Amino acid sequence: MPMGHTATAQAGSGGLTATEHRLANGLRVVLSEDHLTPVAAVCLWYDVGSRHEVEGRTGLAHLFEHLMFQGSGQVKGNGHFELVQGAGGSLNGTTSFERTNYFETMPTHQLELALWLEADRMGSLLAALDEESMENQRDVVKNERRQRYDNVPYGTAFEKLTALAYPEGHPYHHTPIGSMADLDAATLEDAQAFFRTYYAPNNAVLSVVGDIDPEQTLAWIEKYFGSIPSHDGKQPPRDGTLPGIIGEQLREVVKEEVPARALMAAYRLPHDGTRECDAADLALTVLGGGESSRLHNRLVRRDRTAVAAGFGLLRLAGAPSLGWLDVKTSGGVEVPQIEAAVDEELARFAEEGPTPEEMERAQAQLEREWLDRLGTVAGRADELCRYAVLFGDPQLALTAVGRVLDVTADEVKAAARAHLRPDNRAVLVYEPVEPADETDGTDAHEGADK
Amino acid sequence: MEYHPQPTAGEARPWAFPAPERGALPNGLTVLRCHRPGQQVVAVEIFLDAPLDAEPEGLDGVATIMARALSEGTDKRSAEEFAAELERCGATLDAHADHPGLRVSLEVPVSRLTKALGLVAEALRAPAFAESEIERLVGNRLDEIPHEQANPARRAAKQLSKELFPATARMSRPRQGTEETVRRIDATAVRAFFDAHVRPSTATAVVVGDLTEVDLDALLAETLGDWSGNAGQARPVPPITADDTGRVVVVDRPGAVQTQLLIGRIGADRHDSVWPAQVLGTYCLGGTLTSRLDRVLREEKGYTYGVRAFGQVLRSTAPGSSSGSTGAAMLAISGSVDTESTGPALDDLWKVLRTLAAEGLTDAERETAVQNLVGVAPLKYETAASVAGTLADQVEQHLPDDYQAKLYARLAETGTVEATAAVVNAFPVDRLVTVLVGDASRIAEPVRALGIGEVTVVSG
Question: Is the full-model pTM beyond 0.90?
Answer without folding.
Answer: yes
